[in-house]
Amino acid sequence: MTGAEIRQSKFHDISHFGLRLTVGAIFIAVGFIKFDPSFAAYLPQMGLPTGLQYLFALEEFVPGILITVGVLTRISASVLSFVMLGVIFYIDKASQFIGPNGFELPVILLAVSMVIITIGPGRYSISHLVKKIPRFLQ
Questions:
Q1: Domain extent for 33
Q2: How many domains would you assign to the chain?
Q3: What band does 46 get if pLDDT is binned at 50, 70 and 90?
Q4: How far apart are CA 133 and CA 71, in angstroms?
């Protein structure tokens, strides 16, 4: 198969849908955990005010849901890319790539978010079903 044939195959659509489901589920789970009041106690250790707890929870939870269903996918993946850059350079301080405090998972999530920005929502998405949503909002 050549590149053009792969893009039009069902395998591409299914694998892209699986990628969106996986990354969406990760961000939904991580965002949901941050709604727990015990997460607020962790924020001052990072030098952040506890009032940002719900903002941090929502900035991962809502884009995770939107990526999973395929609505506002590029915008959501962009938000998550910025979140992962913050995790890599502010939270983990980009000190160790692999290990107990390594930032390998945020780098993987950043790369997958950038792939989703590039490819868009795919055929198995609400954006594709509606077909009236402008491309920049997909």
A1: 3-137
A2: 1
A3: confident
A4: 9
- Per the listing, tokens 């198969």 go with 1
Question: Could you tell me the pTM of the whole model?
Answer: 0.84
Tokens standing for residue 70: 């395929």
What is the average pLDDT value for the chain, to the nearest integer?
85
List, in order, residues 6 or more apart from 32 with CB less than 8 Å away: 57, 61
C-alpha–C-alpha distance, residues 61 and 73, integer Å = 13
| pLDDT digit string, tens, across residues 69-113 | 989 999 999 999 999 998 888 877 767 777 677 778 889 999 999
> Between the CA of residue 36 and those of 25, 48, 99, 130, what are the distances in Å?
18, 16, 26, 35
CA distance 11 to 35: 36
Alpha helices in 9-98 (DSSP H): 10-33, 37-42, 53-69, 73-86
CB atoms within 10 A of CB 28: 18
